[in-house]
Amino acid sequence: MMKNVNSRIRAGLLASLVLLFVAGCSTQPVQEVEIDEPTFAADRVLMDDVSYAGDVYDPWSGLNRRIYVFNANFDRYVFLPVVAGYQFVMPDFAEQGVSNFFSNLSEIRNVINSLLQLKIESALIGTWRFMINTSMGVAGLFDPATSMGAPQKIEDFGQTLGHWGVPGGPFIVLPLLGPSNLRDTTGLVADSLMFNEVEFLGLNENSHEQWLYYALKAIDARSQTAFRYYQMGSPMEYEMVRMLYSTKREMDIEK
Amino acid sequence: MKKILCVLTLLTAAGTAGASNESYEYPLRDPFAATVVGTPQEFRADLPEKIPLKQARLTVFEGREAPESLWYEEGLRYSYALQKEAAPLVFLIAGTGGSHDGGKNRIMAKAFYQAGFHVVGLSSPTFANFIVSASETGVPGHAYKDAADLYRVMTLVRDELQPDMQVTDYFLAGYSLGGFNAAFVALLDEQKEAFNFKKVLMINPPVRLYSSTSLLDRMLENIPGGVDNFNQYYQSLVERLTQVYKREDRLDLSEDGLYKAYRELDFKDEELAALIGVSFRLTSANLALTSDIMNDAGYIKPKSVRLSKYSSIDPYDKVAMRLGFTDYVHSFFYPYYKAQDPSLTRESLIEKMSLADIEEYLRSATKIEVMHNEDDLILEPGEMEFFRQVFGERAKIYPHGGHCGNMEYRDNVAHMLSAMGQ
Prior knowledge:
- The complex is a heterodimer.
- Chain A has helices spanning 2-23, 42-45, 61-89, 92-105, 107-116, 120-135, 144-147, 157-163, 182-198, 208-223, 237-254, and strands spanning 171-174, 178-181.
- Chain A is mainly alpha-helical.
- In chain A, a hairpin with a 3-residue loop joins β1 (171-174) and β2 (178-181).
- The longest helix of chain A has 29 residues, at 61-89.
- Chain B folds into two domains: 39-208 and 354-419, Alpha/Beta hydrolase fold, catalytic domain (Rossmann fold, 3-Layer(aba) Sandwich), CATH 3.40.50.1820; 215-347, no CATH class.
- Chains A and B meet through α3 and α11 of A and α8, α10, α11 and α12 of B.
């Protein structure tokens, strides 16, 4: 009962976050000065009938860019130092164990979404992996299933929506979580609700254990991600991340 | 018995020496594939997986502020790994648009660190962070000015690290444009004598910057239908990669992953050339846009437009992607230096940006060594002769490897070290 109330609150919070994006379309300050002509002016170089790979629908660009900068600063001053401390303290095999543990729990999401996409084989593989890794793999700390020739099939609700033809919609940079779009943010909310429904770890809401669970999950996810802000030597990093995120998700859906 | 063994060893040794080219077993014979894919795992030198490479930031020009939209480029980033005891120090210069800790600089760092060197990784003067924080003019690509910028950075980095290290001798190495830079830095050091480099190694350098950048610019013409069709080309590439992704269940863009994809997808040379062209175009776009914003030069961005921390750079990014490095040279680089010296002609500027301009020095400087590949894609026909004639024995030219594709191959890593007298 308690759990239901709490998941509803969380859903409400996430929904308002989405609304915040819809409402918060900030606009660029208008250039009052008369614009002088550069050597290669856009209106002479670019042609209307040419499509651009970097063009991703981004109506909330103003807010997105602010959150992008916030995320980069958070990453530099909080997230990465914490991850570095974690990696320093934890022996490599323990880090791997933590990773495997969270990855094993995500099989629930994989199986549900495989079923929703009628990918029966993936659903069976996910179920089998979960059983093997939870038992033989000591509650998911090890991943014998992959060595037995059944690697993980990652499926989430964003992919499920995409599978049934829902387009990505506007690009969104989520606070702390990074690049996403309306479809995948919706997917994230749905997956988290689903996980809470079947949650069986017995974590009490707002208990120390639950906070530890989420913190560890976030640290593990960051330590698995090689991306570092502002290292690629490009003034168009935001645009590149936006393009690559969209492409990667299209590939995830297609596979 | 012992005698026979001795003779046998001698014979085989003589045999390998005579047929050194035939016995070179770097696996990718296609220069385009080599350039894109690099060295497959089983052929790589035995290098440590990790070395204690630290990242640091340095203020080069007191009081210089980065433009607001490039706020994150303030302070020059570099990397270093120090030995505990007294050791030689090697500076490593990255290639065009390359970062101090990019893949190829890391290969060299691992090789030299393992061999007992202190290593310092430096970004290319064409890398955005270097342009903003360490370039005096902010208009990179100038052989002599870039060398002076690099030299300034090297002395500052040495001052910074001095308390933590004991240095016996100084060495210098660079790949691609970094190799070219190394030659001009070595020349500058002959006058300034801050380091008195013991050995300098140039890996796959261009001879004449304009020739190499023109060749790379033209590789984009391999996109079916030309640059206008870049998006269609990108989409088809993504589709093909998705096929591999479907089979492999993960998207692996490491060298090994690319090698696998290359073998599965059966890329044609034109397709690989287009990929190289796209990668170079991205590099030139980053360079030109950074330099334009840095100098408010009115090249792509109108001078009156102020970009904030949160500004969209559309449509300047698209324009930048449509312009080649040669456009930068003709419409930005040359006018910039012409304004400082009205007697400067386009031709004389272009000819100065060439190893031929310091040929005399290169002939006499026995400390400088070259490693190159016969099939390197950035050299025009005949340019390899320059290295043979000027460096003679000091040029080690491999039969294949494309542009820097074989840098991690075991023979190449071994030669990298032996060329430095190790």
